Amino acid sequence: MTASQLFLQQLSNGLTLGSIYALIALGYTMIYGVIQLINFAHGEVFIVGAYAALCVMSMTSLQAVMPWWLLLGLAIVVAMFVSALLGWVMERLAYRPLRTAPRLNALITAIGMSFFLQNALMLIFGATDRSFPNWVPAVRWDIGGVTLTLMHIIIWVSSALMMLGLHFLVMKTQLGMAMRATSQDQKACYLLGIPVNRIISMTFMIGAVFASVGGVLFGLNYGTINFHDGYMMGLKAFTAAVLGGIGNLPGAMIGGLVLGILESMGAGYLSSQWKNVFAFVILVIILIFKPRGLLGERVAERA
Amino acid sequence: MIKKVTVPFFVLLLMCGVGCGESVPTVKIGFVAPLTGDQAPHGEDMLNAAQLAIQHAQAEGAVLPGYQLELVALDDQRNPTQAVSAAKKLVSDKAVMAAIGHLNSSCTMPASAIYYQAGLLNITPVSSNPQISQQGFSTFYRTCATDDLQGPAAARFAINALNARSIFIIDDMTTYGRGLADAYQRELEKLGGTVLGHEGLAQGDKDFVPLLTKIKSMNPDLVYFAGMFPEGALLIKQHFELGMNSQFMGGDGLYDPVLIELATPEAAEGVIITTIGVDVHQLETARAFVKEYEETYGPIGAYSAYTYEATKIAIWAIRQAGVMDRSAVLDAMKNLKDYPGLFGLQNFDEHGDSLIRDIGIFEVRDGTFVSIKSLRFE
Amino acid sequence: MTKGTVTFFAISVAVPLVANAYQLDVLTSVLIYAMLALGLNLIVGLAGLLHLGYAAFFAIGAYTYALLNIHWGWSFWVGWAPAVLIAALGSGLVGASALRVRGDYLAIVTLGFGEIIRLIFNNLDQWTGGPNGLLGIAHPTLWLPQGMYDFSVKSLPYYYLSLVLLGGVWLFCHRLSHSRLGRAWMAMRDDELAAACMGIPVLKMKLLVQICGGAVAGLAGAFFAAKQGTVTPDSFDFIQSVMVLSMVVLGGMGSMRGAILGAMLLGVLPEMLRGADQYRMLVFGLSMIVMMRLRPQGLLGRSHKESQLAAH
Q1: C102 touches chain A (CB under 8 A)
Q2: Which pLDDT tens digit goes with each residue over B26-60?
Q3: What CATH number is associated with residue A60?
Q4: Taking CB atoms and an 8 Å limit, are B199 and A9 in contact across chains?
Q5: Residue C151 within a domain
Q6: Is ipTM strictly over 0.90?
């Protein structure tokens, strides 16, 4: 393996990880854009999606009557549904009553939510790693010394499609327009008859759907899931959102990919045991020196 | 305001005191291992064996006349600080006459100091870091072999039987992982093997692909991992998915059927691991135990037999002492000679290490561990 | 010093008459938590800066003392001072680099710093022992007329020592919050812009409160290391930071009595639930959510309205 082949291979590793980050980061950035809340529990929404899919996929009665790809599709749909429901319930019960309260209260609620969900998952599914069936055929291509697997291609393509879909939704549909309006000025939206509460609920649900797809892809790719994976992945995805400029949708995608690539390069060329430090250092540096992120959005002036 | 602050203080104090007043006098054996968290499967295997030992002892008659025998199982979450708290809890209970545990060397190391200061017999079934017994604690015993045997034995096997010349070493930076990896590396270099690199990884991490990609570019004959099965399984799986043709080898922390399930059988096929101790199924002396264990709890775990042995020896020492006195138990332990245990006649050296020092070598074939070699060190 | 405080300390002094060694050990860790909660209360409760990486300064204190003790044989009676200084310095540096970051962004920056510091302790294994931490920290000893008294693994001396330290921390925080500084912090918390207009040097005040809070955590850390005899990085993870924060929130942000009450409730709970440990974080999470909804000012805290009324 030559140096350039190694570089390309690490780049593809980073793109895979980064695509999953990007899917989760979109949720953070959308929710922040609309109600300026860092939804700390978003990482848990992601792993709940993975567990929901796992439950469907391990049902032997369904395995008997369906081909694997259909069952996988069903699992993804169920995961989306469960996560969206969770996102809706979370917003309705925990965050909405605090919308006018001091911002610290909402953030503490979000942390409490994250702890609650993590431990609920641990009690339901146990603390040990659960193996996640990977039914995607282990097809491997060797292109100029760089190994690509079908799984990687699926991750890239499906996340790219999802992001395109989101872009269309936000830019071209009425719902998207209402979301953008809500993020600009909630009071004005009320006056214009935009159902602000419903728009906010929808935002949580859409964010959750993206996270759940990320969760299923994560499970398929790594083959094991654990209740605490949501915390680390959520934090990294949040870093990605900040990196791209929180509140900025293309920023979240680019931030996710950049973070994934930086992490892979760091682990591959520098040291694997320091790779989480790289991610946090990036987070801190961006927040301190360039809180608008790479793509820059409005200034985060919140107290 | 006075009431608001002080009342809960006393309520809580009373609550921690609940359960102190027992009517029947009991003699207790403490047991500490990770019972929650990612290494809980190992801890459960150990706890099952300890409970079986207690049942057998109860069937053999009262350990001390007029006393009931009881197992106190605590969880250390594989966390050294939790291990110290659990050890302190055990030593402060005057009815505890022995402590069996812990699993992880990083936990046994600090906890053994607590047991020593309290004069409480401590037998670890599985913590294999050699330095633990070199601390000079007269309270410390261990029923398994140590990593200064396991590491070199694994290295010799890699060089001589597997014909590996260039090797990359990974560990999980814990007392156990680092200690085993270092012992392995020293022997490899002595035997003329080339160590391409030695890196640490963090417990709980998922994505080792960048590290493995780097290793792949070095094209080693063998990748060695000293650590536990959750990370081991992911390494094996990602090693396979990257299409690496190097042999994967690991230490006893990987010896758990869950490893194969998590890594998937096809990725784990051909993985070689070493264990501290031989395959218990092959031991004549352990046949009855293995049969009963597997009928009660399912497939026997890697550390079950050692835990059973440790618990039975502790009970033996209490019987010999004949009184509720920690120092008498320690004296009895010093006089132990040719105890007929699961692995043959058990004796301990002056550091408390078992003289039965077996290393087993296993290969994963068709989704199960198959014993391919057993070594005994005298 | 109020009557309530005196009574609290008087009762605490008498507790060992009825408690056994294990219970004293648990109460000692509660007292450590109480120190931490008081320190964090300065930053979060008084000055209104949401800090999510407080455990890092607890870690710095613990590791500083542990290294001084192991390599140079410093005893606890002198080793606590550099631990306090370095933790205060660390907290000041984190504060200084995040001076212009506010609100939930500050929370995330401090979270990031907290994780970075813990991971550094975890990864610099040549000095810190990596994930295994540092072992063999000598227990404190006292020179008495009858000879040397070794704290060893006994419970009683640590209990009293922690009580003394908590008394010191209490006085420190009490004096601070009733000084010009304390009033400035509260003014800054209630309305930063107005405070700045009144001539309060807001940035300097933010830095100062973090230095003071860090110092308290450093003291608690040094004592923790001395008591445990070992320090490991996972004692200082994010969950620990959140634990201390929930103590402050539960008791009531800005209330010193509240911080101690919170430490008692949340400190004893996990020990009582050892074995049923899994439920404790679940209950934590739920209580944080419910608390924010029903009584956002905490058990002993004053609501925003009340404190505004009291100010008139």
Answers
A1: yes
A2: 999 999 999 877 788 889 899 999 999 999 999 98
A3: 1.10.3470
A4: no
A5: yes
A6: no
